Amino acid sequence: METVLQDIRYGLRMLRKSPAFTMVAVIALALGIASTTAIFSVVDEVLLHPLPYPDSGRIVYVSQKLRSNGADASVSPANYLDWATQNHVFSYMAASRGFQGSLTGGERPERVQFTVVSANFFSLFGVNPLLGRGLLADDEKAGNDHVVVLSYGLWKSRFGSDRGLVGRNITLNGETYAVVGVMPANFAPDDYGELWMPSRWDVPPYPFTPDKDPRPLRDSNYFDAWARLKPGVTLAQASAEMDGIARQLEKHYPEANTDIGISVVGMQDNFVSDIRPTLLLLLAAVVLVLLIGCANVANLLLARATDRTKEVSIRSALGASRLRLVRQLLTESILLALVGGALGVLLAAWAVPALLALSPPDISDFRHIGLNPEVLGFSIAVSVLSGILFGLAPAFHASRESLSESLKEGERGSTSSRGKTRSSLVVAEVGLSLVLLISAGLIVKSFVRLMNVDPGFDPDHLLVFSVGLPPSASPAQQDAFYRQVQDRVEAVPGVQSVGAVSRLPLSGGNSGRSFKIPGSDQSYDADIRVSTPSYFRAMAIPLLKGRNFTDQDAQGSVEVAVVNETLARTVFPGQDPIGKYILDFGLAMDKLQIVGVIGNVRHEALETDPRPEVYLPFGQGHWPSVFMVVRSKTSDALALTSGVQNAVWSVNKDVPLSNLRTMQGVIAGSVVRRRFTTLLLAIFAGLAMLLAAVGLYGVMSYTVSQRTREIGIRMALGAQKADVVKLVVRQGMSLVALGVVLGIVAAAAATRLMSGLLFGVSATDPAVFVGIAALLASVALAANYVPARRAAKVDPMVALRYE
To answer: Of 109, 240, 357, 768, which one's alpha carbon is 20 to 30 angstroms from that of 164?
Structure first.
């Protein structure tokens, strides 16, 4: 123990004696450790930490899926009830479906998101309320169902954390509900609800007929299902049993269940499946940055070891064993790494909030991301491992040389094995940084391609928001409300045009139905949209054939539809679809006549190909809430906010606006995950290139200092300054060339693993590979040129007196 303390004290003295070396090494390490710690804090909470529910590993998400392509779908009431009664693998099953409503009774109405759930929803997740109780089976009985459980966020923001709220009434959608409980802050399983209420049918109501018993519905898929595995039951056993149930349902109800299987996925896997590839890519990127930083510090230590060769040899001659010398040098390396780690943790503490501010909701919704004990332990482990990693080679090099060899070191200069090790480290730095730079280049090019995709409409000058009446409103009341709102908003100064639609492009969510055409038994699928006649004009969606809706279509004797170009091409190839019919498209729509064809709109995502779409006019079709789109005459669409809000309140003072933003903001929100990945990867790649350039500069500067005498002799014998510059640059660029070759080979293999994150770009895009390699070579040339110029300024007489 005493010898260890002695090594530590001696190591600290040596670090203090070389402040410039210590500062450069600590900064290089701190940058790598800070990046690694910040990203790992996110990975730890999102991917490695269990969800904040008791025994959360047994909670699963259950959904319908198409066996033919594996696509997931929501659940229908009749199928869900059969699952619940026929399975033997779940302790609980629960259903949930999100809705929007108006919370009134305060200074102004507020649009809230509420979830209708089966009563055992809270029992399944096993979380006790912060105040009051959860839902009970009796709450599902008619007359008892006007009760709600509030989320912590709504309780805090709307009701000021009033602990006396339980037992009091609130007004939601014009009806009175008793507050029976408040959930804790970490309860957000459905990622939607601000409050929860029961259904008197044990399943959520069908959105279009909220007062009708939905339990007989088998081909209407509209809610989510959750389950808790019984003790001892594995996910594989549950999946096998549910697959058997699905096949029985397919046999008994072929019209609704043909090709329909059941997916059983762990809750955490369901939450993080989309973000996992992004986080693993970023973690790999910061590990590369850390390795490059370690290589830099190893090079610094090798350079420093030259100055300490005689010291180490003398200590060896006085009896110090090689193991003792290695331990001393490794102790110094680990001390250096711990200092860098401490600074890195401080930088990470600053970086994590900034990281979360940039992150998409599927990361920022995790409320406990930060420097917890596990993350700090990881940082310490990384620091120690880094110290060992970059300290081993210098320690072994320094400890294996004898006193006589050390006296010859000055003559050998950069041709020694130590010089070869330093050159190898530079090659590794260049190669690793090139892998990271090429990966970032592909992601950046992919993002640029994505942002240049035509969404099918003009997003400029557009203000959008959602609005709706309570579900109890009749279709006639809803239609009249939307017409009045549109008329009042159109009268607001600065408004050019107004439209309404059931589903806004790129805002999340979708609704689909199947249909047939006359003379064919083939079934087709299409997404349904309900819109006002002015919607296409307000969004600047082009009309390709036929006509738009008119106000008379809603009351006409013939039900009409406008379809998009994709549906026209796939369902009626080589034909004019105008005047053709669609059959059995949803409830009470036996026959729709196509009157127009519009251009394709990328509804789900910019990177997703347009799907077949069928548009119905309001009045003929109905929707419980809609998105209004308002085209401004000026570029500042948000300036219309106050006028639009007053226009809506002039129709109904209890109806609030929600999700009010520009259409450009909607597009930005739809690509937030890609922007997050692109920005961070570009930052890490730039950092890697900087570290590699610094490492190369350090090696060449050291080489020049070691070859001062040789350079002086060359110049004394007639070498010109240009010859010296070429000599030094040639040596440095040979290392760079080798690193580039190895980096390109490694990148060609590594980037194939990230092909799923790319859009419109090949994982081996030649332009990116060549362009990034040229960029790195240019930076490396600059890093070489500075010491080369310094070498060319050597005075031959001074150089000949060197040493």
So the answer is: 109
Residues 108/114/116/118 CA torsion (nearest 10 deg) = -120
Give one DSSP letter per residue of 415-473, joined into a string. Answer: GSHHHHHHHHHHHHHHHHHHHHHHHHHHHHHHHHHHHTS--SS--TTEEEEEE---TTS
Tokens of 110: 């507020």
Instruction: Say if CB 779 and CB 689 are below 8 A apart.
Output: yes
The 3-state DSSP class for residue 257 equals: helix
pLDDT at 191: 67
Please tell me the pTM assigned to this model. Answer: 0.82
Other CB atoms within 10 A of residue 244 CB: 13
Cα separation, 233 vs 89, whole angstroms: 6
Amino acid of residue 68: S
Task: Report the first-to-last Cα separation within the chain, whole angstroms.
Answer: 41
Beta bridge partner(s), residue 345: none
Residue 517: its H or E element: none
How far, CA to CA in Å, does 512 sit from each of 79, 261, 586? 18, 18, 9
Residues in the chain, total: 803
Confidence label for 459 from pLDDT (cuts 50, 70 and 90): very high
User: pLDDT, tens digit, for every residue of 176-210?
Assistant: 899 999 999 888 887 677 889 998 888 898 877 77
- Say if residues 43 and 360 touch (Cβ distance below 8 Å): no
Report the SS3 class of residue 69: coil
Burial of 393 (0-12, 13-18, 19+ CB in 10 A): buried
Cα 354 versus chain centre, distance: 15
Instruction: Say which amino acid occupies 71.
Output: A
Q: Measure the CA–CA gap between 186 and 727, rounded to whole angstroms.
A: 64
Q: Per residue in 386-408, pLDDT tens?
A: 777 766 666 665 555 544 444 45
Beta strands in 460-554, from DSSP E residues, in sequence order:
462-467, 495-501, 512-515, 524-531, 543-546
Q: Which helix (H) or strand (E) holds 673?
A: helix 672-706
